[in-house]
Amino acid sequence: MGITRRKFLGWMGAATGAATFADRRGHAASGKHFKGYPGSFGVLHDITKCIGCRKCEEACNQVNALPGPEKRFDDLSVLNDTRRTGKSEFTVVNRFYSGSDRQKKWFVKMQCNHCLEPACASACFVKALQKNKSGAVVYDASLCVGCRYCMVACPFNIPAYEYDEPLTPRVMKCTMCHPLVEKGQLPGCVEACPKEALIFGPREKLLKIAERRIQKYPNRYIDHIYGEREMGGTSWLYISPVSYNKLGMREDLGITSAQQLTAGPLSAVPIIVGLWPLLLTGIYAISRHKEKIAEEERVSAVARTASAADEELKKKLSELKQKMTKEKEDAVSREVKKALEEARKEAEEKDDGPDDESGDASPGEKPEQE
Amino acid sequence: MLNASSFRNRGVFILSVFLLVTLFSLVNGHSEAETEKNPPGTIMIDLPAMDDENQMPAVRFFHDRHEHALKGRKDCSACHLQKDNRFIFKFKRMEGGTVETDMDIYHTNCIGCHKEIADAGKPAGPVTGECRLCHKRIIEAGSSWTKLSFSRSLHYRHESSALIKPADGSDIANCSACHHKYNKDTRELYYQKGEEESCVYCHKSSSVDNVRSMRNAAHDSCVNCHQKMASDNQKSGPVNCLGCHDAEEQKKIKVIDNVPRLKRNQPDTVLLSHWTAESKEGAGLPVSAHVNPVPFNHAVHEANTSNCKTCHHASLDRCGTCHSSLGSDKGHFITLEQSMHDGRSEKSCVGCHNRKKTLKNCAGCHALIPAKRAEDLSCRACHSVAGEPSKIKELSKKEKAALAGKALDKKKRGHHLLADEKIPDKISIGIMKDQYEAVDFPHRQIVKKLFSGIKESQMAGYFHESETTLCAACHHNTAPTVTPPACVQCHRKNTGNVQNERPGLMGAYHGQCITCHQKMDIKEPAATDCAGCHKKRAAAAVDEG
To answer: Would you call A213 and B501 a contact, using CB atoms and an 8 Å cutoff?
Structure first.
């Protein structure tokens, strides 16, 4: 095949990119708009009716067997501060003022809103917080690992934690009195409220009641049911005489549930986990292969060079050897010649007699010298 | 040489400079544009821009402050020229000129006067070179200028004052001192007795052609007259801005109770019906297809409004002149039906009645009564004159008024309460005894207190058709009767019955009682004071049940 590395990489990158950025919005959350489990319950809180008597707080404390409060429940001076839920306070009532000179006061009860698509349940990776079909978001302490991601995730800032408990700390929040509701009874706070500022029933029915109430008394309420669509909808609904941000309730949450907000990036994880390792491994393999070949080539090049040098050395050596042999032979032959010459000379002297030893050389003969 | 420690030092230096600059600018960043509320008497001197050059911000001129500073030394003529013994309330000129000339007048005279006073050693305003002290850019946080309501009481004080002389010889009263009409053809002001109207019918909020704005007209007339009287050393109304337009000062204006009725030939009773008048805007329906006329008690309504403009908001003509059946441009396309029945309007009949229901003495009951949809309202309470429509159409105005009067008399029952024996005195509400004892409910006392609050109101007397209407506020959703059913017949003991939106018994009792107290601003017993209404039961008694 004639595909180059570059082309291969290009194709891989394009495929991965297309897959990563394809439209993968929250189809993970079943259906496009979850309206709650049919027949699930909720509570409607009518803020105009609340008088700040704190009987709901007292009832919640009793029903859930929570430790006694620092200040008694009929001590209304706690309303001077704005409180939040705590490890022994599943619900609190706060006081707010409205009007140009703060003449009007309103009381708002705050607790877990039991969202239709809870952010806390979404964040919990051990399924300790689960949305029950009855509408309540229930907490199982036996599964909880204490990471407190639920506290980070909750847009209403509700879950509290038993930081003082060293061995078995729990996340503490309103349970909508799930055990009581299962038995067909009312949640503690709903039963205790003397003004019926809280009413309990199927969520769809409560929405209709709230709408009807706003129509019947248009001068009393603003035309907005809080919790109808906030964060995808909550089971705890509110109707109010003034705008909700004057009552400490966030109006900047939008109508998208936490699940839908996170489903997009989360759904891209499998693709990324699947494709990218493959891609990266491929790149690694290719570069390793490249390196291997380079290594081999280097080795062979070195070897070739070494053998070439070897041969050259051998050649030189043999040349040198020849030369030396030749020189040796020459030297030998020279010596032999010399020896022969001397022997001859000696022989000649012996023949001539001993006349003239002065000169060995006859006139005209030169001693051969080489 | 750049080594490690000198590098670090340089970084620290740059960072600290950056921080200082940031903090400094944060602290001082907002001093450029101040936010202030304008006191009454603030005049914005804002000439149009010359060419397209950069324009200095408008000058906030504190008229009352200047007046106060010059008190005793100078009078209005210090700044205002006079014509025919009346001040022209423009600054040192008879009328507005070009931007250049006006600007010169302002600069020369303002700065000149400031310089004079400064030379005399007294504190004075800005002079040449201190431009931005006058031309300051201010973000206005609104004004505390309060509109003066020229109520019937105030009008009567003027009307009955011997010091105010009529301007027209034929006038037996002194109406012509202020009231005039304008002849468009001759372009003259003249006085016509019996046709006096409110100033705002012609003098609107801004000047149109040669009709001065209400502000200018009122200042020219009222302030000049006050000024003249003051210079004659007579007690007169205010000459400065605060005196009329400050909320606190307005409270000091003397109010006369029981003002005698304005004499303007107004009717006592009127038969209100659009189709009985000659009108081209009639919807073209046959006479018989119209709604019954309304007998209107004009005299009583006169006595219960602060001035005529409450209803006659644009003119004294018939409402149908502008508000035709189908709506016309003159009436801003508000149909006749809307102009009478719009529950949220301040000028409509139903709207005004609705606002009266929010008064403290009425709100206790009326806040608990849900808003009725249009199809649930009864028209017959007002549209009560039955009769042959074609015959009614032929009647003269006087005869129609008499017909209305008769219909009203028929309805005049007076405002009565049931006899004491018919109202239970004390009721013990013990049906829900649990943690608290039974409520000792002072029923008759409460009913009598409620009645005393509405006894004087003729409107309440008209609309509370029978003596048991008052009972129906609490004993609701049942026919008015002296023996209403017990609450528990409809409000069951258990709470949270969401099938029919009815509160449970506890929610019903508390909702009714506490809401009424809140709306009527009754401080005791407080809503959270449980023992104030029912004593707490001893624990043993609770256990026994």
So the answer is: yes
Cβ atoms B407, B295 nearer than 8 A: yes
Q: How many domains does chain B have?
A: 4
**In a shared domain, residues B304 and B246:** no
Domain housing B381: 269-411
Q: Which pLDDT band holds residue A370 (cuts at 50, 70, 90)?
A: very low
Give which of B471, B374, B462 is closest to B418, Cα–Cα: B471
The answer to whether residue B2 neighbours chain A at the CB level (below 8 Å) is no
* Same structural domain, B388 and B450: no
Q: Which stretches in chain B have pLDDT values below 50? A: 31, 281, 545
Residue A26's pLDDT is: 45
DSSP string over A173-214: ---TTHHHHHTTPPPHHHHH-TT--EEEEEHHHHHHHHHHHH
Q: Same domain, yes or no, for B376 and B489?
A: no
Q: Give a yes or no: residue A194 inside a domain.
A: yes
Confidence class for position A81, pLDDT limits 50, 70, 90: very high
Query: Tens digits of per-residue pLDDT, A306-360?
Result: 999 999 999 999 999 999 999 999 999 999 999 999 999 999 888 876 655 555 5
End of a domain among B223, B251, B279?
B251
Residue B325 resides in a domain: yes
ipTM: 0.73
B396 and B450 together in one domain: no
Separation between Cα atoms, residue B424 and residue B442, nearest integer Å: 9
In a shared domain, residues B488 and B461: yes
Chain A nearest-CA residue for B529: A53
User: Which stretch of DSSP H or E encloses residue A109?
Assistant: strand A104-110
Which residue's entry shows tokens 């012996």?
A350
Q: Is the Cβ pair B495, A199 closer than 8 Å?
A: yes
Is there a domain that residue A143 lies in? yes
Give the end of a domain, one of B143, B162, B177: B143
Of A76, A201, A212, the CB nearest to B528: A76
CB A123, CB A152: distance < 8 Å:
yes
On whether both B45 and B158 belong to a single domain, the answer is no
Residues B166 and B120 in one domain: no
Residue B184, domain member (yes or no): yes
Contacts by B416-422 with C-beta closer than 8 Å and gap 24+? Answer: B416/B467, B417/B447, B417/B448, B417/B451, B417/B467, B417/B470, B418/B467, B418/B468, B418/B471, B418/B482, B420/B444, B422/B482
CB-based contact, A195 to chain B, within 8 Å: yes
B503 — contact with chain A (CB < 8 Å)?
yes
Q: Scanning every residue of chain B, which has its alpha carbon at the shortest distance from the alpha carbon of A205?
A: B498
How many structural domains does chain A have?
A: 1
- Does residue B20 lie in a domain region? no
Output the pTM of the full model.
0.74
B532 and B430 within one domain: yes
Question: Could you tell me the residue range of the domain that residue A173 belongs to?
Answer: 35-256
Would you state the pLDDT for residue A30? 46
Question: Nearest Cα to B241, choosing from B145, B317, B374?
Answer: B145
In a domain, B242, yes or no: yes
A213 in B contact zone (CB under 8 Å): yes
State in Å, rounded, how far the first CA of chain B is from the last one.
94
Q: At what angle do helices A5-21 and A258-352 cross, to 10 degrees?
A: 160
* Contact assessment for residue B311 and residue B347, using Cβ atoms and an 8 Å cutoff: yes
Q: Is A369 inside any structural domain? A: no
> What is the per-residue pLDDT across A126-148, written as a single tens digit (0 to 9) for each?
999 999 999 999 999 999 999 99
Residue A363 has pLDDT above 80, yes or no: no
